From TrEMBL:
InterPro entries: At4g02000-like, DUF4283
Protein name: DUF4283 domain-containing protein
Pfam families linked: DUF4283 (PF14111)
The DUF4283 domain, residue ranges: 41-121
Organism annotation: Lithocarpus litseifolius
Length: 141
């Protein structure tokens, strides 16, 4: 249901030559440093609402109400209607992943695991999970 996207330490889609620019400093990290900086985001999800935009405060309030996390939850606005939701407890994280799909009213939420290098302005959603209601469908199907 959720895509599990992992980039290796070399970040296959990352091109150092494109980022080498005299106007910006470049910081090169070892594999251990990358792993250390990414670790706090291992229990984070990327959330996007479809149809219409949801405000930060409204989304934060509603997901706390429907997900009912036992531990702390941090909501970060990434822009372009993308939000990063970071969980303190792995149990809360796995509950949201395993019990979806999720919606707020009639508003469907796309929920997927965080991955290194996520950039909202480069995202082009190509797939989504949906619930389909098929009334009077024979049970054997």
């Amino acid at each position: 249901m959720l895509q599990n996207m992992h980039l290796d330490d070399d970040d296959a889609n990352y091109n150092l030559d494109e980022d080498l620019n005299d106007s910006y400093p470049v910081i090169l990290l070892s594999s251990e440093e990358k792993q250390s900086t990414r670790a706090p985001w291992g229990s984070a999800l990327i959330v996007k609402a479809f149809k219409k935009s949801l405000g930060y405060k409204y989304l934060d309030f509603k997901i706390r109400a429907i997900w009912k996390p036992q531990g702390k939850l941090q909501c970060i606005d990434l822009g372009l209607d993308y939000f990063l939701i970071r969980f303190k407890l792995k149990d809360d994280y796995w509950k949201v992943i395993n019990e979806g799909p999720w919606s707020i009213g009639q508003q469907f939420l796309s929920v997927r695991r965080w991955f290194p290098g996520f950039r909202p302005f480069e995202e082009k959603p190509t797939t989504t999970t949906v619930w389909a209601r098929l009334p009077e469908l024979p049970i054997e199907l």
